[in-house]
Amino acid sequence: MHPLEAYLRDLRDIHTSGAGVPETSGYPALSNLFNEVGKDLKPKVRCVITIANAGAGLPDGGLFTRDQFQRAKDAEPKEGQLPARGAVEVKPPAEPVDVTKDSKQVQRYLGRYGLVLVTNYRDFLMVGRDAHGHTLPKEGFTLAESESDFWQAAAHPRKTATEQGERFVEYLKRAMLAVAPLSDPQDVAWFLASYARDALARI
Question: What is d(CA 128, CA 116) in angstroms, rounded to the nearest whole number?
Answer without folding.
Answer: 7
